[in-house]
Amino acid sequence: MKKCFLSLLLVIAAGMFSATAQGVVGKWKTIDDETGEAKSIVEIYEQNGKIYGKVIEILNPAKKSAKCTKCKGADKDKPIEGLVIIKGLEKDGDEYTDGDILDPNKGKLYSCTIKLDGKDKLDVRGYLGFSFIGRSQTWTRM
User: Fold this and answer.
1) What is the CA radius of gyration of the chain?
2) How many CB atoms lie within 10 A of CB 65?
3) Residue 33 carries which DSSP code?
4) Is 104 exposed, middle or buried (0-12, 13-18, 19+ CB in 10 A)?
5) In this structure, are residues 140 and 27 in contact, taking their beta carbons and an 8 Å threshold?
6) CATH topology of domain 24-141
7) CA 44 to CA 124: how far, in whole Å?
């Protein structure tokens, strides 16, 4: 009886840790907040304690070879597929803040916060200045 109880307790604990450990890291389908269409797949990963996101696939075949022509600096004229668009987010409670997100279509860099909405939705907010002045998108886990 003790072995069965201990085994059950370990399984429950492992399930809780794996669910929370997954967090925002993974592959996410981006949804355009203006058109409602799926645009790309972004892989969010952790590097040196910060969160980054890279476009790993553009879903519209006509835009697969698009470049970031309006970007400035090191990202100028780079292919959007493969481009790191989320940079340097840090965990702050249940959200990630103090980083940036690049809109490759406009070539603009915005302050960014991301937060899980359940386990399979990610609220992504880009803004200039104050968080309440900006745009939000909800991405879905792949």
Assistant:
1) 18
2) 10
3) T
4) buried
5) no
6) Lipocalin (2.40.128)
7) 12
Residue with tokens 């493969």: 82
The half-sphere exposure of 41 on its side-chain side, counting CA atoms within 13 A, is 8
**Token couple for 50:** 């910060």
Residue that the structure tokens 């996410």 belong to: 28
Tokens of residue 81, six digits: 């597929």
Q: What is the pLDDT of residues 56-74, one digit of tens each?
A: 999 999 999 999 999 999 9
CA distance 6 to 4: 5
Lowest mean pLDDT among 52-66, 80-94, 125-139: 125-139
Q: Name the pTM for this structure.
A: 0.82
Give CA–CA dist 76/67, Å, rounded. Answer: 8
- Find tokens 């939000």 and name the residue: 136
Q: Are 24 and 122 in contact (CB under 8 A)?
A: yes
Mean pLDDT is lowest, of 9-23, 59-73, 83-97, for 9-23
How is the chain split into domains, by residue range?
24-141
Write the DSSP assignment of 85-109 as a string of letters: EEEEEEEETTEEEEEEEEETTTTEE
